[in-house]
From TrEMBL:
The modification 4-aspartylphosphate is found at D88. Residues 348-472 form the HD domain. It holds the Pfam family HD_5. SUPFAM superfamilies: CheY-like, HD-domain/PDEase-like. SMART domains: HDc. Residues 33-157 form the Response regulatory domain. The keyword Phosphoprotein applies. This is HD domain-containing phosphohydrolase. Residues 326-523 form the HD-GYP domain. InterPro entries: CheY-like_superfamily, Cyclic_di-GMP/3'3'-cGAMP_PDE, DUF3369, HD/PDEase_dom, HD_domain, HD_GYP_dom, Sig_transdc_resp-reg_receiver. Keywords: Phosphoprotein.
Amino acid sequence: MDDDFLVIEDDDEDLLIEDDDGAAPDTDQSAWKILIVDDEPDVHVATKLALRGFQFDGMPIQFLEATSGAAARKILEEVDDIAIVLLDVVMESDDAGLNLVDFIRNELGNTMVRIVLRTGQPGQAPERDVIVRYDINDYKEKTDLSATKLFTLVYATLRSYRDINIIEASRRGLVRVIDSSAEMFKEQFLDNFANGVLKQVSSLVAGGRDVAFSLEDAAAATHDRKEMTLVAGTGRFAGNVGKSAWEHFPPRVAAAIEEHRERGRGEYGFWVDGSYVGMVVGNSGRASILYLVGEGRPAMIDTHLIQIFVRNVLIAVENLYLRNALLDTQREVVYRLAQAVETRSKETGNHVKRVAELSKLLGIEMGMNEHDAETFRLASPLHDIGKIGIPDAILNKPGKLTAEEFDVMRTHAQLGYDILKHSDRALLQVAASLAYEHHEKWDGSGYPQGLKGTDISLVGRITALADVYDALVSERCYKKPWPEDKVHALLQEEKGKHFQPELIDTFFRKLPEIRDIYTRYQDTPLGTGND
């Protein structure tokens, strides 16, 4: 006899049984896996003969075989998608099969595999006792299992395994949708949101599809009603963000999108040439489109998950647009107020824009997250809002202020704080803090409170540096712009005095980006005045 195989009928290769050493064989992902665990070779042969040519749901079966409980353990540890275990009770020990049941359910935590006990010695493991004590799915005496009954048993058990997997996939899918939606809704900005959509939808569906997310904005001045713009993409779409989606979507897909958009408000999901398009149209006519490129349709569960996810996207997109509209209004009001102060004090037109951009840049480098840094940027133009209460004679005096006049000028920090402090809006709360503290100094010699070190808020510390830097490098009626090297020397001199040392280090580390800000927002003189 060959050392590697036990041979029952040497003219039929299908009846060979590996004399297993516990190594898991190569498995077929497109077949139902049945593990036969029995120390009798004839049982293996008879089982395979009875189920030869068997198919369920269009898939064949693949047999894995072990002749002991110990060998079966090794296979089960390596193969996690076994559908059925046909298990003998008495093998290397009287309870080897029952011990294997305990191992599968309790040690491996595998509740999906269906376990059918087959015993030739029912007295060793009485049916009623085994069913009650062990998590098995069926109990059969070997003498009762004719070929027909075995066929029926395996068919019914595979049906059960399939249905349990569908239920479990649905449960996991629902969890993924909830988790994905929660992550997605954290995003506050449209570009981040769109990329979040792609990240999360890729976790919902199987396969390496290219994914694109586009928004058609009928209300934008630069778009007509038929314009679509890619705002995020993966795969072949990744390099085309910001470009017209019409140029990158296949004609049949683009035509189907337009056809559904013209139907008006609603939620749409449809297939075009093996690719899925999820689409929602809001009250304004704006359409949000999720386009997944694939070969053939994914599993039904994936389609359902996509549809659920698209509904969440609709709510999120609409809310995000409403939020952005409010932010745009808030931003415009802030800049209008800031420009009113600038015009009255005859300062340069881009002063507040430069201070805002510089503040955000330094804020991120000093540890702010994107959301807080953006709020800081939007609030920053209000740092001098208190100057609206300073008399023109002092505010616009071309010469040096007297001590009494400077005392009046210093009150603008308190005035700004008083104007803003009662708001419960986050942006205006930040604005109140920076208006109040942007003339405080790291060593405690500033005003109006004489705060020192980290008692000054981070936004106050940063605005102090941004405001002073801009005043030095810009032209004012009482001074010409300082040369850059002179400004840098002063900042180094004031390190640890006026300014936080770490902030000065950060400033010089980010100098190339700062110079870029000043290139983009060059001065448009509005007049002359005091800072």
